[in-house]
Amino acid sequence: MAERNPWALGPSGGEHCSPEERLDALRRAPFFADLDEGALAEVHGIARARGFVPAETVISAGSPADALLIVASGALRWSRPTAEGKDVVLDLLGPGDVCGSLPLLGDARQVDDVVGQTAGCVLVFGAPAFGAVLARYPSVTRRALETVASRLEEAHEAIRRLSVATVEDRVAAVLGRLDLHLGRGAQGVRLPVTQEELAGMVGSTLETVNRALARLRRRGSIETGRGWVRVLRRDALTAGDGAG
Amino acid sequence: MAERNPWALGPSGGEHCSPEERLDALRRAPFFADLDEGALAEVHGIARARGFVPAETVISAGSPADALLIVASGALRWSRPTAEGKDVVLDLLGPGDVCGSLPLLGDARQVDDVVGQTAGCVLVFGAPAFGAVLARYPSVTRRALETVASRLEEAHEAIRRLSVATVEDRVAAVLGRLDLHLGRGAQGVRLPVTQEELAGMVGSTLETVNRALARLRRRGSIETGRGWVRVLRRDALTAGDGAG
DNA sequence: CGTACATTTGATTGAGTTCAAGCCCTGTGG
DNA sequence: CCACAGGGCTTGAACTCAATCAAATGTACG
Fold first, then answer.
1. pTM (2 d.p.)
2. Which nucleotides in chain D lie less than 7 Å from some protein C-beta?
3. Residues 6 or more apart whose Cβ sits within 8 Å of residue A198
4. Radius of gyration of chain B (CA)
5. What torsion do the CA atoms of B128, B154, A131, A39 make, to the nearest 10 degrees?
6. pLDDT digits (tens, 9 = 90+) for B38-67
7. How far is A27 from chain B (nearest CA, A)?
8. CA B183, C1' C19: Å apart?
9. Would you say the C-beta of B47 is within 7 Å of strand C?
10. Domains contained in chain B, CATH given
11. Tens digits of per-residue pLDDT, A61-104?
């Protein structure tokens, strides 16, 4: 198939991103919604850039809580390790999304793993750097509160779904959200997820997810391929998810 | 059984709480951890008190997001309505806990129901009142951020458990958390939950929860009765929950 | 003392996991 | 250019946990 993969490694191997991409990420980050261009440039100066490739660990659970990341390009997978080794994927993160924790925010250790889903680049704030931003721009704290509150809301929705919906409904819901989330602007992008990762996201198994995807495919809602899923009709997906 | 029920209605029908109880709730609320007694008294003056009885709706999903509540006494049930009518219980709230949403925090409507679990009393902040508190005491925003972040963390843990643990493990985990949460200080309090509510909390059914409780009871970890559960050995409960 | 509601227990059914095997695509190295 | 190997996808069959359906028993409270 001769389709260009928008997540493919760039010429530089994908480990870096341009200053424009970095600034754009800051503009999209809800944290900084109230800042003007000058302030954004200043914040940009405080951050450090770091590239990553697929499967590269960017944050590892148990390490000190000393980094806050903002995704500039590419996608990251945020997952929680379990004793049995079956990681639960909590979210996929795209440009403008935030992850990581800081002592400032009440955490001592990172609890979750964050690894590269595609190649890309993140902006990294250390604790002192982010503290400086908070002190200088009080609006950032309020925006951060909103961001976390809306994440909490999404998490509650995920809990509700895990409680009442079937695997097929949950797969559909996750695909709809990923499409909305990672496919900003562009409709019907190939979402870079394997079926195993989807299983981790809906709390199920590879095989069951495969069967659910097969039904969705037969129904014409999606297309699938090796390592990707394309959502054809987002509305059809979210129709039967038992939402309140 | 001749045991006094600590959640029973008081002489006044439980709809009110004393000024001391209200101040105590504010002291326990993480939001106000940085405030001194003078500031607390001032905040206390801004809030309005409201009593509730069991099963009374305090916040109803879909209503305007114009109230932030802090529990002063008693317990509230925070649940999310589903299309099928099977409410998913997201948490039980005790003294010092916060719930509700405000436009300030990015919400337009309440998404969840909050109803009385026992009798008790809450402190209510309207949007302007809470805005005034935020303006006067900036530390409150930061504390609020910590609070919401820790809630998010708990929600992620719940997601992980729903994904990998059995119903019995989930029941045990929820009981452990409720005991820690609602039984502050006093060990082995009768937790005011029915098995149906527990089912809502672990995403299961009445009957399955009953069988799980029976096993835990046989094992000597809990005692149960009509409308309550007592945790005897909290450590024994959390042993097998498949935590990472 | 009866009524309403919570709990308990049994039988049945079904969605989903687990185990097992085969296929297909892609990248690699001869 | 072809063979091969690894990873991801697909499918089948047995099995398991939990939901569902159906009573019966207990218990608080008017």
1. 0.88
2. 7-13, 17-22, 26-28
3. A171, A174, A175, A209, A213, A229
4. 18
5. -60
6. 999 999 999 999 998 888 899 999 999 998
7. 18
8. 45
9. no
10. 19-162 (2.60.120.10), 166-236 (1.10.10.10)
11. 999 998 899 999 888 989 998 877 678 888 888 888 999 887 77
